[in-house]
Specification:
ten-stranded mixed β-sheet, elongated, 21 strands, nine-stranded mixed β-sheet, 31% helix, alpha/beta, 2 domains, 15 helices, Rossmann fold
């Protein structure tokens, strides 16, 4: 009978949700696959997880080890909370095979050992009759073969043998051969490459990519992953085009009528708003105010905190009349403090997806992009990944608030990277000096979705949150930090209740 393409058994699950997603369902059964990577990249963990996934589905699994011992493999399993009892573990170098009676001198050792090793593998497969097999590792067979021709012939022989036994096989290779082993790549039905890199500071970064996979429309490119308790956690590369949804684009309020007016009506769902300014000017406070307004409407929100400590943010917000504790307790607010030295960009994108798709967050705040930038090895990759992430959030109808700190206080202030062109709305917050005091001004530079107010307003942060003043029409050069006074200045906010600064000037 012809194969029904709609059947669930047309793919063999790898046991890793993220990897199955990359492979569009899993591996084609009864084929031989190569998993390559330097030591420490997670090949053994992937192989054991693959066999245990098969065992959970009622399939017999065989792990053939030419390098590690059974004791070592079981120890690996215990670190992940796994029992390897459902699997058959076969050591190719038993302890009693090292005695003097096992040695011979008439032939070159490799000529005998290679043939014996391959025959032993076939004999064990015939005895166990597994549906899934892992061979760890091919570097041992490569050393025994001594020549590329003999090595290729033996691998081809094993591939043909396994195809007649209806086995799905993973062969692991530690890339001990110089350069890329293209012979293996051409023989295998699919090739998965695992990599590990170290940065100047922080944990190591692991990523994988599918080199080839015959007959499968897989997701190409690099995908971050980590080795966690329970196996590999793979974070598929985010492709925004796969997540289009319909949503209501009615603007939502920031909690301030003046701020809404500046923005041309409020925050529009499906857009990203970038708040830029020097340290302490009020970027986080403005974001928290919009966040609290959303939470008070009964909607969910997520806050990704890179820079500030979580207790500090909660205490400061409560002092400004924006207590976040009730929303954390009832589950509306998801507040996650992130260490950029420990988090890969792929894991961060996965966390944002979880916030939107599982937590149903209507508003997402990233505070700040400066720390996120430091977690990236190259600025161009930050821009590309952030573009894809913002496109995804836009297509899900999420309001995104991005905070970008700038160097300097007044005058010439600069940012680490210019992301204003990625945002739909750009809000500038600045310090300026007037009448012997340091004051704060806010302006909307651009919006793509509304006719925004083009004035510059003074604002002040007090116990009631953010208080907005009238447009600063009597000052020139406010955004430079050194304004020129050209009027009476009655539009300035009072330093105290009921007191006008202009009265001091007259």
């Amino acid at each position: 009978m012809p194969l029904d393409d709609d059947r669930d058994d047309r793919f063999a699950s790898t046991g890793i949700v993220g990897l199955d997603d990359i492979l569009n369902g899993g591996l084609t059964p009864d084929r031989l696959y190569l998993v390559e990577g330097t030591p420490g990249t997670g090949k053994t963990t992937l192989g054991l997880g693959f066999l245990l996934a098969g065992a959970a589905a009622g399939e017999i699994g065989l792990y053939i080890t030419l390098a590690e011992t059974e004791v070592e493999l079981r120890a690996v399993g215990r670190t992940h909370g796994w029992s390897l009892d459902p699997l058959t573990l076969f050591e190719m170098v038993p302890a009693d095979g090292l005695g003097e009676d096992q040695e011979q001198t008439l032939l070159h050792p490799s000529e005998v050992e290679l043939g014996e090793t391959v025959r032993a593998i076939m004999a064990r497969v015939d005895a166990v009759r597994p549906a899934r097999v892992v061979i760890d590792s091919l570097s041992e067979l490569r050393l025994l073969a001594q020549s590329p021709i003999r090595y290729r012939r033996q691998i081809l022989a094993l591939k043909h043998y396994f195809s007649t036994r209806k086995c799905t096989v993973l062969v692991l290779d530690d890339k001990s051969a110089s350069g890329s082993d293209l012979q293996l790549h051409s023989i295998a039905h699919g090739v998965l490459a695992l990599e590990q890199t170290l940065s100047g500071f922080g944990t190591q970064r692991r990523r994988m990519h599918v080199v080839k996979m015959r007959g499968v429309r897989y997701r190409g490119g690099y995908h971050d992953f980590e080795i966690a308790r329970g196996g590999l956690q793979v974070y598929p590369r985010l492709v925004a085009a796969e997540h289009r949804t319909d949503y209501d684009d009615t603007p939502i309020s920031t909690g301030s009528a003046e701020f809404d007016s500046l923005l041309g009506g409020g925050l529009v769902p499906g857009t990203a708003t970038l708040l830029t300014g020097p340290a302490g000017v009020g970027k986080t406070t403005a974001s928290v105010q919009a966040l609290v307004a959303t939470l008070k409407r009964g909607e969910n929100a997520s806050y990704f905190l890179f820079d500030e400590r979580q207790p500090t943010l909660l205490k400061r917000s409560a002092a400004l009349g924006m207590d976040l504790h009730p929303f954390l307790e009832n589950g509306q607010l998801q507040l996650r403090a992130i260490d950029p030295a420990e988090l890969s960009p792929g894991e961060f994108a996965a966390a944002v997806r979880d916030a939107v798709e599982e937590h149903q967050a209507r508003i997402v705040v990233v505070d700040s992009l400066n720390a996120y930038l430091q977690s990236m090895p190259n600025e161009q990759f930050l821009v590309l990944q952030m573009h894809e992430l913002l496109t995804y959030l836009g297509q899900r109808g999420v309001v995104t608030l991005l905070i970008l700190g700038m160097h300097g206080i007044m005058g010439d202030i600069r940012a680490d990277v210019d992301l204003s062109y990625l945002a739909d709305t750009a809000v500038q917050l600045r310090y300026f000096e007037a009448f012997g005091e340091v004051r704060q001004a806010i302006s909307v530079i651009k919006t793509r979705t509304a006719q925004h107010e083009r004035t510059i307003r003074e604002f002040r942060i007090d116990a009631g949150g953010i208080l907005f003043g009238a447009p600063l029409r009597d000052f020139q050069g406010v955004l430079t930090g050194v304004p020129t006074f050209s009027g009476e200045g009655r539009a300035l906010l009072a330093s105290r209740i009921g007191e006008m600064v202009s009265d001091q000037a007259q």
